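To the wet lab folks,

You asked to see what we're planning to order before we commit. Fair enough. Below is the target structure as tokens, and below that is the sequence we designed to fit it. If anything looks off to you, flag it before the synthesis order goes out.
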């Protein structure tokens, strides 16, 4: 029997959506008559493309490291997890190294599309810090941070909104659509999804969430689409604010009554010794998390992520997860296997 770890690998490697060639384009073409040379040329091109598609598909099957029996066994083992989470909402916060590395990004996108195809209602909430820094540099604006938060003046806010909403968001939508999904891009301004106010006077247009209305997101999910949300919000006067992506994902998950909130990070999860991966904590409850913070084991930038998880659990999210976005297919490992990936925090 194939191992659980191979579930995500096989599902990710199997060709999805390759077009099958119509039988009449592969055989029996001698009986086809053409009235014009142009029609004949178009038909011949279509025949070549169809045969090429079929050849590529056959080659992919031949070079697979798994036999047909092994692939069927793995899919059968995934069935209980698919049944358990079918129709449930999963909110994924995406950013960090997984967003910068193109091969990792391709894997995350395909994992999301796969989960959507088996009936899960996926919501992708994203940041885009590295790309924002890149464009600020092109415009000669030096980025500044205070306590891990970006100091956002008017000029910086304009760049943040253009990059997150106009570039990163639409790029992710295109990638999901290309992979066979059907994504809808939006930000906190759309449908009054996220209302905000200034978090602190010395941070400029960094926002604190005051209200969340996910009625538009629910409509998108119920129509079978995948919402992709950039974390830019507005106040009652329409002023834009930059919102922490972890915080936004947690509030959206709570408003949707999500089954899972998954934060993809640049670390494996919560570890008793951050230099030793063998000390990873696979599962912990709220009480245990607070003890880890008190003992100084969870520190720095991990504290806001943990607090975001705890708050979401208190607001009705069933389980929260901190997983390593750098690990290939960590999303599938977390949802479709018993062993999971990273750290699961429960109530």
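Sequence we intend to order:
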């Amino acid at each position: 029997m194939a191992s659980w770890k191979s579930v995500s690998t096989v599902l990710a490697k199997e060709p999805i959506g390759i077009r099958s060639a119509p039988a009449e384009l592969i055989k029996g073409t001698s009986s086809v008559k053409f009235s014009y040379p142009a029609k004949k040329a178009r038909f011949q091109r279509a025949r070549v493309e169809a045969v090429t598609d079929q050849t590529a598909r056959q080659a992919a099957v031949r070079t697979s490291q798994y036999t047909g029996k092994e692939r069927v066994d793995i899919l059968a083992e995934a069935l209980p997890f698919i049944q358990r989470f079918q129709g449930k909402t999963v909110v994924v916060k995406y950013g960090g190294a997984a967003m910068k590395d193109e091969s990792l990004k391709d894997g995350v996108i395909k994992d999301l599309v796969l989960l959507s195809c088996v009936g899960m209602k996926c919501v992708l909430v994203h940041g885009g810090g590295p790309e924002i820094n890149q464009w600020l540099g092109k415009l000669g604006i030096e980025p500044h941070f205070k306590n891990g938060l970006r100091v956002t003046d008017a000029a910086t806010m304009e760049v943040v909104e253009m990059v997150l909403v106009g570039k990163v968001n639409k790029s992710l939508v295109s990638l999901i659509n290309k992979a066979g999904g059907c994504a809808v891009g939006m930000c906190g301004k759309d449908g009054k999804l996220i209302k905000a106010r200034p978090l602190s006077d010395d941070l400029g247009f960094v926002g604190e969430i005051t209200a969340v209305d996910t009625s538009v997101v629910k409509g998108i999910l119920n129509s079978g689409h995948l919402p992709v949300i950039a974390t830019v919000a507005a106040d009652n006067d329409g002023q834009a604010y930059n919102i922490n992506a972890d915080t936004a994902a947690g509030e959206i998950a709570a408003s949707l009554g999500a089954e899972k909130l998954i934060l993809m990070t640049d670390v494996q999860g919560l570890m008793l010794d951050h230099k030793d991966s063998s000390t990873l904590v696979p599962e912990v409850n709220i009480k245990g998390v607070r003890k880890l913070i008190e003992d100084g084991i969870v520190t720095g930038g991990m504290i806001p992520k943990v607090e975001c998880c705890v708050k979401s659990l208190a607001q009705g999210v069933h389980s929260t997860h901190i997983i390593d976005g750098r690990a290939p297919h960590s999303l599938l490992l977390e949802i479709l296997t018993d062993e999971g990936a990273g750290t699961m925090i429960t109530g």
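Structural context that might help your review: The chain has two domains: 6-71, 86-346. The two ends are 34 Å apart (CA to CA).

Thanks,
Computational group
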